[in-house]
Specification:
The protein has about 300 residues and is α+β, with helices and mostly antiparallel strands. It folds into three domains: about 50 residues, Uridine Diphospho-n-acetylenolpyruvylglucosamine Reductase, domain 2; about 120 residues, Uridine Diphospho-n-acetylenolpyruvylglucosamine Reductase, domain 3 (2-Layer Sandwich), CATH 3.30.465; about 110 residues, CO dehydrogenase flavoprotein, C-terminal domain (Enolase-like, domain 1). The strands form four sheets. A five-stranded antiparallel sheet has the order 4-5-10-6-7. A four-stranded antiparallel sheet has the order 11-12-13-14, sandwiched between helices. A three-stranded parallel sheet has the order 1-3-2, covered by helices on one side. Helix 10 runs antiparallel to helix 11 and helix 11 packs antiparallel against helix 12. The longest helix has 25 residues. The N and C termini lie far apart (about 55 Å). The structure holds flavin-adenine dinucleotide. The site of flavin-adenine dinucleotide has 29 residues, from strand 2, helix 2, helix 6, helix 7 and strand 10.
């Protein structure tokens, strides 16, 4: 008979320090759980080996749920839920407009109350929408353990599908990125067969800084750019665009010639590589124009 029960012990820490000591003592036999929207599905489906302990991070919500601007950096606590993000400055300032786009297509309403931004990054798959967006903000992550804290660029932190540079006794505690200048905005585009509750056949994010119609800075990311199934930056595309006027000819050139030169797409059950490449072109074009419009009009 096959047992459907997954057996583990649940530890509820009284503080961040308590959680870190528990991790130090029990890693790697322990898995942290934030909202549980990814972890519990993986355990239920037996996609991962059940750990001896689950470290329930929800008691740390007060300590690690925040969005603030401090010394020129936007700082987001790892346990901030998707719903809490939508109540923060990230949804009222045009410089962060891509956060509104991600929210609108993120799972279901119920899921947004539980899922956290930290859990999204730690999931580390091509479907981690906030990771795709945060890459274009040049975000970094802060990790804590009983040894202290360390920071890493998000791009370095995402190593491969379901693999990050975090150590078994570390917790992700914060995500941070430099506060964008006034003439900046962003956009996030996600395509699938439906509009909601979708994993995304293609996703893309753009961060744009304009001086008149000249692109002073631009960053572009996709759910994947090369072989690894993790969100990645399209750096060749970015450097082509930097310094150019944002006009139709430049967009046509970058979409038709430059992007395909660095993008490697794969075929699977959901879509062919050719279809994905075509949709990547459309996504980039839309995200560029959307960011442009947002800067010019000053509204999301
Ligand atoms: C129906 C459904 C729809 C979904 N739709 C979307 C979507 O539209 N877009 C999208 O991007 N994702 C989506 N997801 C995936 C998932 O909900 C998100 O990735 C979510 O943000 C995960 O956050 P969580 O807090 O629930 O993470 P959890 O499930 O608690 O944890 C996920 C992983 O991160 C680790 N972890 C969590 N927090 C920490 C921490 N602070 N430090 C160290 N490790 C940590 C856990 O050990 C686990 O390995 C969907 C999932 C479902 C089931």
């Amino acid at each position: 008979m096959v047992s459907l029960l997954v057996i583990f012990e649940l530890y509820r820490p009284s503080s961040l320090d308590d959680a870190l000591v528990f991790l130090e003592k029990n890693a790697p036999d322990v898995k942290p759980m934030a909202g549980g929207t990814e972890l519990l599905v993986l355990l239920r489906d037996r996609a991962i080996k059940p750990p001896k302990y689950i470290l329930d991070l929800s008691p740390l919500g007060k300590e690690l749920s925040y969005v603030k601007v401090e010394n020129g950096y936007v700082r987001i606590g790892a346990l901030t839920t998707i719903w809490e993000l939508s109540r923060s400055l990230l949804h009222s300032d045009v410089r962060y407009a891509g956060f509104v786009d991600v929210f609108r297509k993120f799972g279901t309403m119920a899921l947004r109350f539980e899922a956290t931004i930290g859990g999204n990054i730690m999931t580390a798959t091509q479907y981690s929408d906030y990771a795709t967006l945060l890459l274009v903000y040049d975000a970094g992550v802060k990790l804590a353990s009983t040894r202290g804290t360390r920071t890493l660029p998000l791009e370095e932190f995402l190593v491969d599908k379901r693999a990050t540079a975090s150590r078994p006794d570390e917790l992700l505690v914060e995500i941070f990125f430099p506060e964008p200048p006034r003439s900046a905005s962003s956009a996030f585009v996600k395509f699938d067969r439906r509009e909601v509750l979708i994993a995304g056949i293609v996703t893309s994010a753009v961060y744009l800084v304009l001086e008149g119609d000249v692109i002073r800075d631009v960053r572009v990311s996709f759910d994947m750019v090369r072989e690894k199934r993790i969100p990645s930056r399209a750096r060749v595309t970015e450097s082509y665009l930097r310094g150019k006027r944002l006009v139709e000819e430049a967009v046509h050139e970058v979409v038709e010639k430059v992007l395909p030169s660095e993008m490697v797409r794969t075929t699977d059950w959901w879509a062919t590589a050719e279809y994905r490449l075509e949709m990547s072109k459309v996504a980039l074009k839309r995200a560029l124009y959307k960011s442009y419009e947002r800067i010019v009009r000053g509204v999301v």
